[in-house]
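Lab meeting, item 3. Inverse folding demo.
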């Protein structure tokens, strides 16, 4: 396994890639395994691949540790409870949260946002109040708020996005007003790649006493996030986009909010005492963790975070920046290709359309050449409507992608466009 934090040179990259078994897979191979194309995995925005250390943790859990947490007196249960709580501390350290009990295990980003919408919402948002989101949100950061508004008579407001895919900060400042009870926005756009100036935005909101939730699904896999430095009130991410298992994620919340928010989902694990007359709920973090959690997922997520920390978050960000610049230059020469999302600050996401072609057709032709990209609206239909397109082709990179893979994408794109036009 790669252990030294140093620039991601081709030699370092070669070793990193060996940590990910799936990257040596062939796509569209014959039944006997012959032929096929090398997998070029450029759908990291949807989900990332898993290093062997994460796979090992899952296997080890089921082979040697399987038991439930927080309840058993026996050795297995005690052992796994300790490890699960250590995983929480790993996440705390990774996000630089002040306390481990500010880290809530959830099913993922969507679940984390639903928790805040339903719990914070019920306590603090009343009829006529406003909830602010932006025009570049993933549906997961629109629908929980929209549903809340429908049920409670609150009003959803939207910060506009300009043609480069950047937030209109003047409008943002205007829209943050006395009625605004929370501002929920994405740290990094999954469709445009825009890195929003979230520290500045949080300062703007806090000057008016408005708490901010950041959807960090596309930020945590690609660099450092420090929730105290950002002064974020809530921060969410998914393990599966961060080289960890599916079905598990994190809600970070400041103690001052979490400690006064009502339980969202209740059940086993969330209580101190239960009687038919009255239930006393547990302290943080357990009051928000109903039922048996994704135990091995929590352990796997911690292993994934340890893994990327060993590679180095700054190295990852720097290398992905180079990948993005290289890919942007390469794709820009394809006739008729238009990049959607040209913000100054961008993560390694390249969304594009090609005049006279449909994204699905391009995606299918790329797939035939072993290249996995995402096509469609990327769960950002309002954004597609703004750009007047049905969808895009999206190549989203991770630190294990190579410049040679970008070359393959470019060559495959030339071929695809020639076939379609
Ligand atoms: N937010 C953003 C910006 C995303 O990109 C995604 C997934 O693509 C989500 C939220 C939802 O994440 P999950 O499906 O892991 O809950």
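The presenter then showed the designed sequence:
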């Amino acid at each position: 396994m790669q252990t030294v934090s140093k620039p991601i040179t081709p030699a370092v990259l070669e070793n990193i890639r060996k940590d990910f078994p799936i990257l040596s897979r062939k796509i569209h191979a014959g039944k006997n395994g012959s032929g096929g194309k090398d997998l070029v995995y450029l759908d990291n925005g949807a989900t990332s691949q898993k290093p062997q250390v994460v796979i090992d943790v899952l296997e080890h859990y089921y082979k040697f540790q399987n038991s439930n947490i927080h309840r058993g007196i026996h050795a297995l249960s005690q052992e796994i409870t300790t490890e699960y709580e250590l995983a929480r501390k790993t996440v705390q350290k990774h996000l630089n949260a002040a306390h481990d009990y500010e880290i809530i295990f959830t099913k993922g980003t969507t679940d984390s946002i639903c928790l805040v919408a339903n719990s914070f919402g019920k306590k603090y948002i009343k009829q006529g109040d406003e909830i602010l989101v932006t025009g570049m949100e993933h549906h997961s950061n629109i629908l929980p708020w929209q549903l809340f508004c429908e049920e409670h008579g609150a009003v959803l407001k939207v910060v506009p996005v300009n043609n480069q895919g950047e937030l209109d900060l003047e409008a943002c400042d205007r829209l943050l007003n006395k009625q605004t009870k929370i501002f929920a926005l994405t740290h990094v756009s999954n469709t445009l790649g825009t890195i929003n100036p979230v520290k500045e935005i949080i300062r703007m909101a806090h000057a008016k006493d408005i708490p901010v939730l950041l959807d960090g699904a596309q930020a945590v896999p690609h660099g450092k996030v420090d929730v105290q430095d950002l002064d974020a009130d809530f921060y969410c991410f998914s393990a599966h986009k961060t080289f960890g298992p599916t079905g598990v994620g994190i809600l970070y919340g400041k103690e001052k909010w979490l400690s006064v928010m009502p339980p969202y989902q209740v059940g086993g694990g969330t209580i101190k005492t239960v009687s038919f007359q009255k239930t006393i709920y547990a302290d943080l973090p357990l009051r928000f963790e109903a039922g048996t959690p994704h135990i091995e997922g929590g352990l796997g997520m911690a292993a994934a975070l340890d893994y990327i920390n060993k590679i180095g978050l700054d190295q990852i960000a720097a290398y992905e920046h180079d990948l993005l610049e290289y890919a942007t230059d390469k794709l820009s020469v394809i006739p008729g290709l238009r990049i959607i999302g040209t913000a100054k600050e961008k993560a390694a996401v390249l969304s594009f359309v090609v005049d006279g072609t449909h994204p699905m057709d391009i995606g299918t032709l790329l797939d035939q050449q072993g290249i996995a990209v995402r096509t469609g609206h990327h769960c950002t239909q309002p954004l597609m409507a703004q750009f007047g397109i049905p969808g895009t082709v999206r190549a989203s990179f991770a630190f294990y992608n190579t410049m040679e893979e970008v070359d393959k994408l470019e060559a495959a794109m030339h071929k695809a466009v020639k076939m379609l036009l």
